[in-house]
Write a structure and sequence with these properties.
Flavin reductase like domain-containing protein, three-stranded antiparallel sheet, mainly beta, Split_barrel_FMN-bd, 12% helix, 4 helices, 199 residues, seven-stranded antiparallel sheet, 14 strands, oxidoreductase activity, acting on the CH-NH group of donors, NAD or NADP as acceptor, Pnp Oxidase, Chain A
Length: 199
Amino acid sequence: MFYRPAEGHGLPHSPFHAIVSPRPIGWISTRDGAGRDNLAPYSFFNAVAAEPPQVMFASNGFKPDGNPKDSLRAIRETGVFCVNIVGWDQREAMNASSAHWPAGTDEFEAVGLSKVRCETIDCPRVAGAPAALECRLTRILRLAGEANWLVLGAVTGVHLRDDCLVEGRFDVTRYSPVARLGYRDYAVIRDIFAMDRPR
């Protein structure tokens, strides 16, 4: 099968999300200019540089009321956000936080999550998350499409859960990262393997 995206695929659901997978989930926490906290998962998320560390996530679409998503609005107002990493134990809360809540809803409270203060930015993070990246906004880029935005941030602080550190390495098998696939599908990482780079 071949299709041109501009002409449609003719399938019941778009295969694009399933093709570009698995995708890490950036569980983005923010605090807006009025002091209201927000938490929402984004699967168009990744690290983009290591020295200095930088991340990106993309905000796609509008809220049902036609307004920009709360995360994007808050980051524009304050210039900071936190990326919380989702492990197997957080999967249900992460999914629940993706609901279309009314503007101003604190998803931490709505889904029963505890929050803790970040160290380098004025923003909460998810208590008990395997890792969290405190970020300062570096740039927001408008992407093609009606409501697609790319958010870039510099990492200013890193939290690692102590039980995930094994002999000086951050061991993902200690928390089993959850990744997004296509449709309603997710994956969990439990098995890893190493390969040496060729010389």
